[in-house]
């Protein structure tokens, strides 16, 4: 698959090419971006770019990324400590630089070894950030407890997925991919069951395309987007015009996507109209762009939240090279209270990133059909007595390497 590299100020992060995207939309976005960037902008004596557009709005335009790694949740080890000390950051950098990441190999030929797939070029790490968690509210830096109903749905879903894994070597060896499950040499009788909800994660069967994870199908989780995924981060390009704002996201390893922010005061779409990335309505509060996002699809999932997910985003230009982003996340059917994440983005070099290729999810376009075909061959061989039951093989776990910062 094609690899591209966007150059950041403090760190270079490799990102794989991405999601199938409307060529027309990309051409229009690039044309608008070029037109807006080409507009004359007043400069100060220090040659810093103006923080306002020619039509008077605060200027958020550019290519932005987070240049440091920060855990989403605060580790209990740091309790009420909001920021790392310089010594703690240096120690994390030392520990993380010593790890082999995805280059670490299990026993050659084992399921765990084969499931590792990518090497560490796809899992680069950045230096440790100042904050001990992205979550700034609640003050303890932790995601609030989930509701009883959300816990019930999550337990049912987990039990189904573990049942599909029960006869694998992963469960026999008590590996992380079977956490909470038990080994049983007899494969489950639940293979033909439907998932509790529309499937978004990898499961140990490939009876149809929707048994694959969203990423396997060239889809992305979308919002909220905190820079997770292979490649060590994500980028977003913000384009402003007098009539609206567009944000293009370059995420993970092949799930690039674009959102358009409606800025003319119209209300949200009717409740029965649902969109993969939600419905974004924005307005200005002083120098801050506030975006209210609702109407998410029930076929998407963020930590158990689906169609009831509600986001309030705040984008504030804090200097010529920095942009603060905060988002309050709410779903009363999933969490007992709203919670807030804060990130600081650094502006990237427009000249070095002036050539940008259309994202394509080559892996999913070719790999996912191949997985389905191979699964049918395994089923046939098992039915003819020429191969093992496919449910004794682990085709679901494996992936991210150990990172002490995330523990």
How would you classify the helix and strand content by structural class? alpha+beta
Poorly predicted runs of 5 or more residues: 1-48
Largest sheet: 10 strands, antiparallel
Oligomer: single chain
Backbone shape:
globular
Summed up, the helix count is 6
How much is the average pLDDT? 84
Helix content: 10-25%
Question: Describe it for me?
Answer:
The structure is a single chain. Strands 3, 4, 5, 6, 7, 8, 9, 10, 11 and 12 form a ten-stranded antiparallel β-sheet that branches. A two-stranded antiparallel ribbon has the order 1-2. The chain has six helices and twelve strands. Helix content is 19%, strand content 19%. It is α+β, with helices and mostly antiparallel strands.
